[in-house]
TrEMBL record:
SUPFAM superfamilies: FAD/NAD(P)-binding domain (SSF51905), ISP domain (SSF50022). The keyword Iron-sulfur applies. GO terms for molecular function: 2 iron, 2 sulfur cluster binding; metal ion binding; oxidoreductase activity. Its EC number is 1.4.3.-. It is an enzyme of class 1 (oxidoreductase). The keyword Iron applies. GO terms for cellular component: cytoplasm. PANTHER family: SARCOSINE DEHYDROGENASE-RELATED (PTHR13847). This is Gamma-glutamylputrescine oxidoreductase. Residues 421-515 form the Rieske domain. The lineage of its organism: Bacteria, Pseudomonadati, Bacteroidota, Flavobacteriia, Flavobacteriales.
């Protein structure tokens, strides 16, 4: 299977294809169309199909192409928004509701594994959160107090080994891990067995809400219609208010051979900002340590390759590991008030739904989205409807972050030109090098391959016209405003843009022509 980056994640090798042939579609009217073939889309499609809905799932590339193929697949009952923060921002009642999410999502996963005999290396684990200094200890104490207020059994503990020196550690039982792509493959097979239809290489381009309540969905494989539409595309495509309420981030992961077996096989986290996280996984009968961290805003790191180097150096300093077998990065979205957006798409008048803003908890929130959205479609209500409402207005919670994130986006709109390297000729590029350059008054994103072939693109992202920046780790052009990403040849890798970068070539006289 392919993924949205040049580097292979640990999960890609074992599964090449999810199903053998494209399904035949005779009727283009469905109860629900789901856009997106990751854990959110497939979990939702399966849940709706089980409830008697006739569903079509469309995926712009292949199943698992996005973040689900690049996750580290921790299954937690605690989240990047801590329970003390949730109590402060949303009140104790809503924080208690949030406390149910992790347990319920893990149970949904376990039920799917049992019901459909999915072999996906699921294991129950304990999570350990390590405070490495006094500041982290104070934060951990608040985390524990908040968790205990809402009924989560998080507590200080002793007798836990960790190769990094620490001040204190908390344990939290009943966590989990699995192989995300094996799990998704099982969801695919279950969905198809129940009559669901999947179209790969089928991009959802646009939708129209008709007066009769039917939604027309324009895709790269034709026009389809449905009573409801679900955007499980990590961030809704096109331009929407949610793009102002979320910020795209990259996170990095590496899998190392383990030289000794002294390390805990449970889930481990520190409290740096950004934090690092660890787990193990057996691949080809070999146990590997998966380490993650070094997060940053998409398009805001000058050399993304350094992020992987920093992660590797830190792991080698503290852990006895051998070769780095895999290294990759993946994208997630930060909501301004810390809580995901799951429910009706703001600005829509009909039954259009979305799920985004999962932070680093995509496996859990992607899974619970299937329950929330399926309930909203079939029952017209959900116990989590208010908590995750994408249309919520929070004048206090997250306001400072909102201003900070969008001030950054505004800077990208207005001042992106200041970041460009001013060169006068394409010939100044070395093999394997990429730059955004000025050429005779216009702006281009240029990449020269090691064989000398040059890809020349207009540098403007079609989504909201920010200039893209080079991601050296994944060899992609990334938009710093809302997270659209593009291959070196301009092909769209990830939304919210629905178009690729415009390709340019030059005739023998140096005049530009559209490719």
């Amino acid at each position: 299977m392919f993924r949205d980056g040049a580097r292979k994640s640990i999960w890609q090798e074992e599964i090449k294809r999810f199903f053998s042939e494209e399904q035949i579609i005779n009727n283009k009217m469905f109860d629900v169309i789901i856009a997106g073939g990751g854990i959110t889309g497939l979990s939702t499609a399966l849940q709706l199909q089980k409830r008697g809905q006739k569903c079509l799932l469309v995926e712009a590339s292949n199943i698992g192409f996005g973040t689900s193929g690049g996750t580290t697949a921790h299954l937690n009952t605690f989240f990047d928004i801590t329970f003390d923060e949730a109590i402060s921002n949303f009140g104790e009642e809503q924080a208690r509701l949030l406390a149910d999410v992790g347990t319920e999502a893990i149970q949904i996963i376990k039920n799917n594994i049992s019901d459909y005999q999915i072999e996906c290396d699921f294991q129950k684990k304990t999570g350990y959160i390590f405070a490495l200094d006094q500041k982290q200890h104070d934060k951990l104490k608040k985390m524990i107090e908040g968790a205990q207020k809402v009924g989560i059994d998080m507590k200080f503990c002793d007798g836990v080994s960790f190769p990094v020196s620490f001040v204190s550690v908390a344990s939290i039982a009943d966590q989990g891990q699995f192989h995300p792509i094996k799990y998704i493959k099982g969801l695919v097979e279950a969905f198809i067995s129940l009559g669901g239809i999947i179209l790969e290489d089928c991009m959802c381009i646009n939708h129209t809400e008709n007066e009769d309540g039917i939604i027309s969905v324009e895709t790269s494989k034709g026009l389809f219609q449905a009573a409801s539409l679900v955007y499980a595309t990590h961030i809704p495509p096109g331009v929407n208010v949610l793009h102002l309420m979320t910020a795209p981030y990259r996170s990095y992961a590496m899998a190392f051979e383990i030289e000794d077996h002294k390390y805990s096989e449970d889930l481990m986290y520190d409290l740096y900002d950004p934090y690092r996280y660890y787990r193990t996984q057996i691949i080809d009968d070999k146990k590997l340590l998966i380490a993650g961290g070094e997060d940053h805003k998409t398009g805001h790191e000058e050399d993304t390759g350094v992020c992987l180097s920093n992660l590797e150096n830190y792991v080698r300093e503290h852990f006895n590991v051998g070769a780095a077998v895999y290294s990759w990065s993946s994208q997630y979205y930060e909501p301004v008030d810390g809580m995901p957006y799951i429910g009706k798409l703001p600005g829509s008048t009909g039954n259009i739904y979305t799920a985004t803003g999962f932070r680093g908890n995509g496996m859990i929130f992607g899974t619970i989205s299937s329950e929330v959205i399926s309930d909203l479609i079939t029952e017209k209500t959900s116990r989590y409807e208010k908590l995750f409402d994408p249309g919520r207005i929070k004048p206090l919670a997250g306001f400072a972050s909102f201003v900070k994130e969008n001030a950054s986006s505004a800077t990208d709109f207005v001042k992106d030109k200041l970041f460009k390297e001013k060169i006068n000729s394409l010939a100044e590029l070395n093999d394997g090098e990429a730059k955004v350059v000025k050429y005779e008054g216009d702006s281009y994103a240029i990449y020269k391959e090691t064989d000398g072939k040059t890809h020349v693109l207009k540098s403007t992202c079609p989504h909201t016209y920010c200039d893209v920046r080079w991601n050296s780790a994944e060899k992609s052009w990334d938009c710093p405003c809302h997270g659209s990403r593009f291959a070196v040849n301009g092909k769209l890798l990830t939304a919210p843009s629905t178009e690729g970068l415009q390709r340019i070539y030059f005739d023998e006289y140096g005049n530009e022509e559209n490719a």
